[in-house]
Amino acid sequence: MKSSFDEMHFNGASDPTGPRARSHYQTFERWLAGQPEQIMRLRREEAELIFRRVGITFAVYGDKDGGEGTERLIPFDVIPRVIPADEWNEMEAGLRQRVTALNRFIHDVYHGQDIIRAGIVPSGPILNNAQFRPEMMGVEVPLNIYSQIAGIDIVRAANPDGSGSYYVLEDNLRVPSGVSYMLENRKMMMRLFPDLFSQHRIAPVAHYPDLLLETLRSVGPHSMNAKSEPTVVVLTPGMYNSAYFEHAFLAQQMGVELVEGKDLFVKDAIVYMRTTRGPKRVDVIYRRLDDDFLDPQVFRKDSTLGCPGLVEAYKAGNVNLANGIGTGIADDKSIYPYVPKMIEFYLGEKPILNNVPTHVCREPEDLKYVLANLADLVVKEVHGAGGYGMLVGPAATQQEIVDFRACLLANPSNYIAQPTLSLSTCPTFVEAGIAPRHIDLRPFVLSGEKVQIVPGGLTRVALKEGSLVVNSSQGGGTKDTWVLED
């Protein structure tokens, strides 16, 4: 595997004094050198105790240990990931550009389909995609925005000259999760190490719920009186959902109602929620469940999680959904390779953030290359998530490669492949002490009347030595992400 870019240190292999801290980490490194290991362990234990007391857990279903619905704590690392201001400014510009183009693409897919007629994106991956919702054809949504909340996964890989380059690994435009951990991680770091914050100028993140509510209100339905303030609710599948803590947390932070499908009803194509004072009209629903479960009259008839008639009210323009129905067409992995071309097509700009080079296995030449190089590639299901349904070639056994080859040959259009990027590492406090572990970053992009991003995002860390899988469902943890203001 290729050598990794270390976020904190320059490569010290040729330096007899050992690794040197990068300039934006120097103050933190001096502080860390003065911290006894026992104190750091006590702080980590304190964080775990508080997180458990508050209930910051997620549920794992059907894991390999045979447990179902097991409540787990996402491990929290006490060493932050630090990003200098200039790097963040460029990344932020790239995120704004990318999410703007993706929203333009979704609107185009459900309206003129200009990008198909121009030959930029083939019709097959769009019209035959499981995430394409024909029910959305011709439906107008406020401000033409479909993905009001996007989570864009970014990784950094080493260049031959020792520098590092950022790449977009994945676009999450349906119901991206994790922002509550970003907020709680910051609160925890400020509680555990207040002296650190007096030594750094760190951009704040605590105002995210305010920006989220502002964004949701700005995309109220067309039918609303401009002088009235939209009523916003958070729609959750219920307390047994793996991200229920986040649903409840965000509703509480925004000061809005947390509702389940059974709390809503539709009358005359208008959505109401049941309250102790009688029905109250709902204008914007921040929904945290997938399209299929939203409305049993349109999608899955056996769904008890949604609200009958919701799609009718949505199409009539009497309620808005965040994120919109059908946004999954733009975050499917089979569409991902075309995003740079989308940016040029819709915005007339060169992409600021690059994709990871990607082989589309439904293309015969790409498939031939992938089959010949399975041991060196990462192969992913186009609808896969959470680190499942993928092959990491360099870490796979010979039998796993043989089995995956059979799956690939049986249904090549279901897969893409990418080179095995050695994700950047960041010092992490593990059981053996401080050691490098691979990380990624999920910034959260809010799109309403304007595009807004809180500095940083959720840094996820692969806690197992050598692992590249950062997902919490497979043993990953999280770090606080600091964007320096100077």
From TrEMBL:
<dbReference type="InterPro" id="IPR025841">
    <property type="entry name" value="CP_ATPgrasp_2"/>
</dbReference>
<dbReference type="InterPro" id="IPR051680">
    <property type="entry name" value="ATP-dep_Glu-Cys_Ligase-2"/>
</dbReference>
<dbReference type="Pfam" id="PF14403">
    <property type="entry name" value="CP_ATPgrasp_2"/>
</dbReference>
<dbReference type="InterPro" id="IPR016450">
    <property type="entry name" value="UCP005522"/>
</dbReference>
<protein>
    <submittedName>
        <fullName>Circularly permuted type 2 ATP-grasp protein</fullName>
    </submittedName>
</protein>
<feature type="region of interest" description="Disordered">
    <location>
        <begin position="1"/>
        <end position="21"/>
    </location>
</feature>
<feature type="domain" description="Circularly permuted ATP-grasp type 2">
    <location>
        <begin position="80"/>
        <end position="462"/>
    </location>
</feature>
